[in-house]
Amino acid sequence: MGLYKNLFKQTAIYGLATVLPRMFSFLLVPLYTDLLPKAEYGKVTIIFAWMIFFNVILAYGMETAFFRFYNKEENKQTVVETSMVSIFWTTIVFLVLALLFRTSLADWSGIDSQYISYAIWILALDALVIIPFSKLRAFQKPMTYAIIKIGNVLVNLLLSIVFLIYLPKLSAVNPTGLISSFYIENFQIGYIFLANIIASLLTFVVLSPDYVFLKWKFDFSLWKKMMVYGLPILVAGIAFAINEQFDKILLDRLLPKNIAEDAVGEYSACYKLGLFMVLYRTAYTLGIEPFFFSHASNKNAPQTYAMVTKYFVIFGSFIMLSVIVFADFFKMLMIRDESYWIAMKVVPLIILANFCLGIYTNLSVWYKLIDKTYIGAYISIVGAIITLVLNFLLIPSHSYLGSAIATLAAYGSMMLISYYLGNKYYPIPYDFKKIGGYLGLSVLFSIISFYYFRENYFVGIALLLLFLYFIYHNEKTTLMNILKRKNNL
Question: Distance between CA 426 and CA 438 in Å, rounded?
Answer without folding.
Answer: 24
